[in-house]
Structure prediction request, 561 residues.
Amino acid sequence: MAQHRVLPILQGIRPIQASHISTELIAGATLAALGIPEVLGYAKIAGMPVVTGLYTLLFPLVIFAILGSSRHLVVGADSATAAILAAGLSGLAVVGSAHWVTLAAIVAIVTGVVLIIARLIRLGFLADFLSRSVLIGFLTGVGIQVAFRQVGPMVGVSSPQRNTAGAVIHTLSHLNEAHAVTVGVSAGVLIVIVGGRFISRRIPGPLLAVVGTIFLSWAINLNTHGVSTLGKVPSGFPGFSVPTSSWNTVPTLLGTVGAIALVILAQSSATSRAYAERYEEAFDENVDLIGLGAANLAAGLTGSFVVNGSPTKTQIVDSAGGRSQLAQLSTAAIVLVVLLFFTGPLRYLPEAALASVIFLIGIELVDLTGMRGIWKVRRGEFVIAAATVVVVAGVGVKEGVILAVVLSLLDYVRRGYRPSRSVLARNERGHLHSHPVDSASQAAPGLIIYRFAADLFYANTNSFATDVLMLADHIPGGWLCIDASAIADIDYSGSRTLLTLNDQISKRQVRLVIADLIHPVHVELTRYGILDGLDDDAIYDTLLDVIEARDAMLGTGSSES
Prediction:
């Protein structure tokens, strides 16, 4: 559903229902409780200082709430875009360094500009070019990569390997060096979070685990027992500044920006659309692009990193009863209080605890149910999804995004290259039914109706021509009708094929007629000059008209011209 307004501001908030304000505030508090530990983890995935994760739930969240059209989409740090960012900056700077933070800010700013440009030239439709199966494979691959990278920190084994597979192999080969207390901290965090979910999904397990390990670390000084902690986390309002250096790296970063922008487009649009349909509400993906672009600009200008529409955070708010962006604004208010007054305790947070939270985030992204569902119904699409998983998890997220786009487009071309084709014939009740093309079944004596269920373009013209000529050979002196109801476009190659076919089947004393042409294709055929080469009465409105015309002609005893 789409909605167009001159000044699309506060669409996600208005109208405010007074009776629902308390529920919105509770939903916002729930999001803060579950989202704060998550964004701290996403900051670590991105190689950023943990406080920048909190920044993503401040200005970017508020900006999208004001400018976006979706009443439900939650914008903030996201595992997929954080992983792409880290992969894109790898080798350009030291992880977590000032240079790294500057490059991350530049990526966020350029991504914001790209998204706004995409809105101005109405590129929101590009989100549709990542199929659901490819997205499932992509997010599953990201989940595997994110989860496996945390195994080392969870057991206290550091790895010099940047590649995920290499890091896992290194960790497994050095398990004898695992730090017992660190392993104990990780195990405790996993038990609290997983156990809480078994009891109730409303229990803020990650928050309880983080607060509990912070208290434990402070009480017994885990640092002195060999457990690494975050150290000092800056407090206060994030400052606004434009990066003054490293802009010469923008050409190098464009590949990363493009991958991030595409994931934001696809994931945010899919999430907004799903919740708009659930509640029968209007949303405009192009308006959302303005909100997402401005949110990323805000992230970059406040020293943070790219933000995205988050399906998991959106579900958290929805489950808690939130039905508008008012819930997200209350989350931002809570985050502001934390930044001003409560960052001090974060210095005691064990890195193993944070790694355990991230590990579970990654595991949640692994969609085995979705992969099984694809396997059951579409084996070809499963191969595409599985290939995406392997490349994302084994090679890299950026490469996985590129592969996902290429595979989605190839899958689209494949379907057009080998479309559904059939001939239509009447059953004993006189109704038309599909039959295999090879059967050459006739709808009436000397009449074959050929249905080609795809646009006619350069890649499938050969198969179209082969079918038509084969069918024409079965009805010398008859009619061959092309059912054009499923043909929405004919390119230049298709038009030349039609002209050639008309000449070839005319030599076989077969008459070519066309039925159910939609208006745009009728205009195309006129422009291509194809209609000039057909008989004056070769175009019929419906298939029934064709059958009646053929029956009437046979009833007069006329010979076929």
The longest helix spans residues 250-278.
